[in-house]
Write a structure and sequence with these properties.
Number of domains: 1
Largest sheet: 2 strands, antiparallel
Helix content: 40-55%
Number of strands: 2
Distance between the termini: 15 Å
CATH topology: Glycosyltransferase
Strand content: under 5%
Shape: globular
Order of helices and strands: HHHHHHHHHHEEHHHHHHH
Number of helices: 17
Strand order of the largest sheet: 1-2
Radius of gyration: 20 Å
CATH class: Mainly Alpha
């Protein structure tokens, strides 16, 4: 799901490019401190990733049995624009949308999943689904920005949202008669893919006439093909994933998902985690977010054994990545949930308490009061919280790291 996290980067880069020339001619002036709404998770500027991080925080709290604070839910639902879409970029997230607000499929899809999971938001969910349907491309897929060419990652997250909302993605068709799954499967690397190890993977989008395998797109497509969203229940059974020499029937989304899972399992064997190229680096660096996505995807496909090594790597290496970042902490909680791991003892860290400390205190389902984790966070009594507090930490992860545009690269 890194593409959804990198939605912030796309918006940020657009704004930076538009403002670069005037800025070069003027003396730099200090930026005002961001105003953090009381209902929002995280202390970083919400301009570029508010909807994304809020949705994952709420999903994670709900998954572990907590009832999120009403003001946190209200902040998310209040970001929905009149036509049903949500925006990753808002010049002022405290003001109502206007016709120029750049709505996007990724923010809308993850908000739909969160509001559906929480319950009591049928109208908002329906409006979000209707908007997503209205911006489907003729090939059956979706782009991050409506009107742009389709790509696998956005198509996948929209399909997941549709499935979670109770829609049948195979029945969601464009004006040209192409279904959502038609759009998704067009990004699948088939029997003629080279190298052979890429067969079964999904590419983000063709580049110079070629479709390179992309780990982010493949993980997202696995969930979409299985008709699942970000929240994956632990599977009762478990079998090792295998990468077929030639993928099974390309017209079957579930079979395609299994082939994609096989690709991810093989990719994880090399280092125990996925990697991505980052600016200035001599060689690919560990990609914690994509690794978490791959673990969730493998668990969804019933292959927890194949994700075991990567899960242990995450336990040992995810603390700095998740530091003060509600979206990252939420993703790790969902990773733990999908694999049947205790999120309150994830590599020695209580992920639930860490997440709760970044936003409004949740309520317990039984009493409506603060959870024990939130009490600990307020008292400062949890020794594991030291690494998650820091007002500016999330900004570097949410914007600077993502500006690499790595989602279009060949990630392994």
């Amino acid at each position: 799901m890194n593409v959804r996290r990198s939605a912030a980067a796309l918006a940020a880069s657009a704004v930076l490019c538009l403002g670069a020339a005037p800025a070069a001619l003027a003396a730099p002036s200090p930026s005002p401190a961001p105003v953090i709404p009381s209902g929002l998770f995280g202390q970083a500027d919400p301009t570029y990733d508010g909807v994304w991080r809020q949705s994952f925080a709420l999903l994670a709290q709900h998954t572990v049995g907590l009832r999120p604070a009403p003001q946190a839910v209200a902040w998310l639902s209040g970001q929905q624009c009149a036509d049903g879409g949500f925006a990753s970029f808002r010049a002022d997230a405290t003001k109502a949308c206007d016709p120029a607000t750049p709505l996007d499929t990724n923010a809308t899809a993850v908000a739909v999943q969160a509001l559906k999971a929480l319950g009591g938001h049928a109208a908002e969910v329906k409006k979000g689904v209707d908007w997503l349907k209205s911006v489907q491309n003729e090939d059956g897929g979706w782009a991050y920005v409506p009107g742009s060419p389709s790509e696998a990652s956005s198509t996948s997250v929209v399909i997941s949202a549709l499935a979670v909302a109770g829609e049948k993605p195979g029945d969601v068709k464009s004006k040209a008669g192409k279904s959502a799954y038609d759009g998704l499967l067009s990004f699948r690397l088939g029997c003629d893919a080279e190298p052979a190890s890429d067969r079964g993977a999904f590419g983000y989008q063709p580049t110079d006439g070629k479709l390179p395998a992309n780990a982010d797109a493949t993980a997202a497509a696995t969930l979409a093909g299985l008709g699942k969203g970000a929240v994956v229940a632990p599977a009762a059974g478990d079998t090792p994933a295998t990468a077929p020499a030639c993928p099974a029937d390309g017209a079957d989304p579930a079979a395609a998902a299994q082939g994609a899972a096989g690709y991810l399992a093989e990719a994880l064997k090399k280092d125990g985690h996925l990697t991505a190229a980052t600016p200035g680096a001599d060689q690919p660096m560990p990609d914690t977010g994509n690794t978490a996505d791959a673990v969730i995807a493998l668990a969804a496909a019933g292959h927890k054994q194949s994700a075991a090594g990567a899960l242990e790597w995450l336990k040992a290496n995810s603390a700095q990545w998740a530091k003060g970042n509600p979206a990252a902490l939420g993703t790790l909680v969902l990773t733990a949930h999908a694999t049947g791991t205790d999120p309150r003892a994830f590599g020695g860290t209580d992920l639930v308490a860490a997440l709760n400390a970044t936003g409004p205190a949740p309520q317990t389902p039984a009493t409506g009061g603060m959870s024990k984790d939130a009490d600990k966070a307020d008292e400062g009594g949890n020794g594991n919280l030291g690494w998650i507090i820091g007002a500016g930490a999330a900004a570097g992860v949410g914007i600077g790291f993502l500006l690499s545009g790595r989602r279009k690269k060949n990630q392994v």
